[in-house]
Amino acid sequence: MLSSVDKLVAWVLTGFLAILTIFFNMYLLLINQRNYRKSAKHRLNPADFIITAISMASISLQVLTYFWQTMDVIDTVCRISLAGAILLVLIFSVKFIIFWSTAFLTFYYGTKLVVEPVHCYTRIQEAIVKHVHTVLAVIVVSGFTNCIPLLSVLTYYNGTSSGLSDCGSIMPTDTTGLAYVFYYVIISDIVPGIIMVKCSISISYHLAKHLLDMKASTNGAHGPKLGTQMRVIKMTLSLVVVFVIFVIVDIFTQMTVVLMRQNTLALTILFASIYTTVSAFVLVYGKKSYWKELIATYNLFLDEYPCLNSMKVEEVKTEPHEHSHGH
């Protein structure tokens, strides 16, 4: 069980994480907006479009989680429990959108990085990748339609456990409610997780094969291509690792709420905040030009204050892989 002090700590941490998440995601949005304005056709490439959608959803999630944590700490007697329940449903909807959009980004990079012989499956892949906007619209609509029924499972006020319980909490009272929660966990956590793991396995296999081909060939013809791909591969695999760790923790904490009837929902919300912060950092770091520009801006800011010069970060001129293979 979480005490009121534990909930306060979770609230403060969520606020700190919200600042970081909003910073990284606003940075991604501003860079993508600049790319959009610079492009001749005024269009974003599919990867940037998916990243823009993830960033907007991540900022929304952080704002919603902070509001929910605030209500959970302040409203101890559950005067506005319906508002808390609605916020919770919105949080789960946006979380669903982020997970599926991230799975879609991994899927997109998987199709671009891994060249497979043409068959039925690859044709389906190509068709999906061609309609990025439509797929994202379907993900957003699915997020809300799959989560709104959660309102029927939420307990708006649960006077048990000496007033420590969360006002709007997921505690199904019947088999239908329990079945729905299990359905939600499978559709929002496990299915996108399977897609991401499948894509990461094919990307890793492609990378291993590529490295073996490079060893075998003496002319180093594959070098430049691998140099430009390496950072994207690292980013995609990092996103998958972060996601898998989060899903395991998320399922465990949700089970403590649903099955053990504990008031640990604040932890579920806190872990969602941690996930958005880490994944936003991975997305910024994964694009070399974005990261380079961020470091340069940070160092320029420190130039204004000579006493902070020791906090400067060294700017990386070239990637080791590009340097060793790209010439």
From TrEMBL:
Identify one Gene Ontology CC term for this UniProt entry: membrane
InterPro entries, alphabetized: TAS2R (IPR007960)
Q: Which GO terms describe its biological process?
A: sensory perception of taste
Q: Which UniProt keywords apply?
A: G-protein coupled receptor, Membrane, Receptor, Sensory transduction, Taste, Transducer, Transmembrane, Transmembrane helix
* Pfam families cross-referenced by the UniProt entry: TAS2R
Where does the sequence pass through the membrane? 12-30, 50-68, 80-111, 132-157, 177-197, 235-259, 265-285
- Specify the protein's topology with respect to the membrane: Multi-pass membrane protein
Where does this one sit in the cell? Membrane
Q: What is its main location?
A: membrane
GO terms (molecular function) for this protein are:
G protein-coupled receptor activity
Q: Which Gene3D superfamilies would you find in this protein's record?
A: Rhodopsin 7-helix transmembrane proteins (1.20.1070.10)
Q: Which domain of life is it from?
A: Eukaryota
Family, as annotated: Belongs to the G-protein coupled receptor T2R family.
PANTHER family, alphabetically? TASTE RECEPTOR TYPE 2
The protein here is known as: Taste receptor type 2
**Whose protein is this, by species?**
Cirrhinus mrigala (Mrigala)
